[in-house]
Amino acid sequence: MHLLPQTKLLRSMHTVIRNRDAERGELVVTASRIMRQLVEAALELLPFEPRDVTTPVGQTYHGLRATDRVCGVSIPRAGDSMENELRVVAPWMRIGKILIQRDKVTKLPHLYYTALPADIARRHVLLLDPMLATGGTALAAIEVLLGKGVPEEHIVFVNLLSSPEGITIVRERFPNVRMVTSSIEERLNENAFMEPGIGDFGDRYFGTDIAA
C-alpha cells in the first residue's frame, strides 16, 4: 500500500472535496488535483530503463525512461473521473474499461462489460477507481485482468479513498497487487459507506446528485 504523503496541502484539498456543501466545480477541480498526484505516484511504481540524452550544452545526462508497456483501465462510472488526469500525464497511454456495478441492496458486484487492449497480458496496468470500500468491485476487476493474462504483480490499483476493510480484502486475495491512495479512512458504516468519507463520489463529481 502506497499512501500519498499526508501534507497540509493534501489535507486542505480533502477538506474541500469532503465538504457536503462544496460547489461541484470546486469539487471537480480539487479532486482532479489529488488524482493527478495519485497518477504520478502510480507511474513511479512502474519499471524504468536507463536513457542517456545530450543536453543543450553538449553534455550527457544519464537519465531514465519509463516503460511504454502500460495501460490504464478505468471502472466506470466513477473511474472515468481519473482518466483525464492520466491522459494529461501520459497522453499516449491506452485506456480500457471494466464496467462493474454494485447492487445497492446486496452490495455484490456484477460484471457488465469489458473493453481492453488486445495485448494487455504484456502490459502493466493502472486500475482506476476512486473508491475502495468493501473491496468487492476491486476483486472482480482484478479477476478480469488476471483472466486476460495480466500478472498480479503488474497491476497497480489507484484510488482516492480506501477503507481498511477493502485494503485487507484485496491484500489477502491478491498480495502482489500494489495500491496507491490518498487516504485510508476510519471504517465502513452499516451502509458500506466510508467514514468520514466523501459520499457517492460519482454522483457528486458528475453532478447526478443535483435535482434538475
Automatic annotation (TrEMBL):
Location of the Phosphoribosyltransferase domain: 5-208
Cofactor(s) needed by this chain: Mg(2+)
Keyword Glycosyltransferase set for record: yes
EC number: 2.4.2.9
InterPro entries to which the protein is assigned, alphabetical: PRTase-like (IPR029057), PRTase_dom (IPR000836)
TM ranges: none
Annotated family: Belongs to the UPRTase family.
Protein name: uracil phosphoribosyltransferase
